[in-house]
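QUALITY CONTROL LOG
STEP: pairwise intake check
CHECKER ROLE: data steward
CRITERIA: each record must contain a sequence immediately followed by its structure tokens, with no blank fields

ENTRY 1 OF 2
RESULT FIELD BELOW
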Amino acid sequence: MQTTLVEVLLGFAIGAGLALVTGVLLARSRLAERLLSPYLVAAQATPILALAPLIVLWFGTGLLSKLVITTLIVFFPVAVATMVGIRSVDPRLLEMARSFRATGWQVVTRVEVPAALPAILGGMRVGVTLAVIGAIVAEWAGGETGLGVLINVARGSLFDIPLMFATLVTLALTGVALYLVMLLVERRLVGDR
């Protein structure tokens, strides 16, 4: 359980962080969006289950491959939510920031990201549950420990149904708990909108 949770939390943090930066870049630059979007969509459209064995071959069976897989599955929904959220910022807020001679960095950090926070956090709620899936897929593809490996063990033991259900319930509870934590963070940061 601990191994899987570490993979989930680290993969989510890395994926959400990279997605936040990418989402801001895509929202602010149509050129960046035109250049990067086809690759991002192709990466999202390719099933992670199909990519996982390749990633394990390239990065080995250690933590790095699991983080790459988990990061990839988290990245897209958070990046899209960030981009959409920032593009939905009230133009009057941006105009007001410009009238105060705010720098580009100030506009991003003090106007756009705070105004887009509900959308960004919504993407993160989706991303945190996908991080659980990413960690399990990574463990299936090349793990030595973790809940994904335990599912493989249950399947290999002539379908040890009690072990399989115990693992699935643990995964479901983990996903729900992480989702609720993100919901609490969202309520704390943006209130009940």
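ENTRY 2 OF 2
RESULT FIELD BELOW
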Amino acid sequence: MKSKLLAAIVVLLFVACLFQACNRPSQNQEFRIGAVLPLTGPGAPFGESSKNALILAQEELSAHSTNSPVRVLIEDGMTDARSSVSAFNHLLDVERCRVFITSVSSVSLALAPLADQKSVLLFANASHPDITKDHKFVLRYSNIASQEAGTMIDFIKGQQPPWSNIYLIALNDDYGRAYAQQIAVLVGQQAEFVVKGEEFYDRNTTDFRTIASKAIAANPDAIVLVGFGRSMGLCIRQLRELGYQRPFVASLGFVLNNDAVVAAGDAAKGGFFLNFAFVTQPGAKEFRRRYQDRFGSDPSPNAVIDYGTLYLLAKGINAVGNDPEKLANYFRTLGKAQLPTGEVSISASGDITAPVIVTPISPFGTVNLWDAAP
């Protein structure tokens, strides 16, 4: 009870201090922030949590602000790069937004060059390693595929008795391909450790029997699964149905929403998954409680990132205004920032890396996205 009260007080104090900053923009000036989110398509379950997290943050910020209200305008990118570009252009040309938030690697990679071309700020909160590379106006608050892969390989190497080989099954998109590339690089640096094979699947795949049979025939010490949503859970279930009894390690996409967990069911027991390290922190737990009170449902863990991103943008806007170039420079030189959900570090490249941990699935196959701990 004391920790919950303390977390709530921290949030209130943070908001109050945020809007007492000395270097404020003009009185009553509204700042529009465009959000291109996956509200339909395969990313819809976690896209809905992202939308609600932004709404919650906007309401909290507006309730404690007497000037410079932040208004988020949300468009559906349909978990598709082309549709997201159209949504981005509408927010830019019609709604006159100069600051943007998005997610999903394929979408972020499509919007990043447009942000530079149009000189608008983009928080592309997705995991592909190259999202911020050579992009002046692009920042990112997310887990990163290279970081995820490193955490996973370190975990696999540390098993006793040792796991000396793996088989990789990955989603056939920018995220999955980048992840596979990072795994190959890391494994290539390890003596007596090999990838026995790899298979890629489309995001709408429901029949994994051919892929699962190939993986089982390779007789790996463990299978690495990369993806998200129902298809990932179906892959786990069909591996077990075809007789695979050894461990699997699933990427963070496993806990972006409950779809993979539900589809896998009790077939998930004996496996491991990556989760955000912040889920056990007081600030994240307080966010979860506020989200539940406001929307009557549990958020996806990634919603903490969207919530924090809007608070971070409000902090920057109150410091330097909403000029995209000034904001980008401000964030890249800020170093650290205190958010209601905890402190974050910002690199000179504009990356805020969300730490991840490997978590075992219970012997009953049950997974709680928010109570995960190593």
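INTAKE CHECK: passed for both entries
DESCRIPTIVE NOTE, ENTRY 2: Confidence is low (pLDDT under 50) at residues 19-25.
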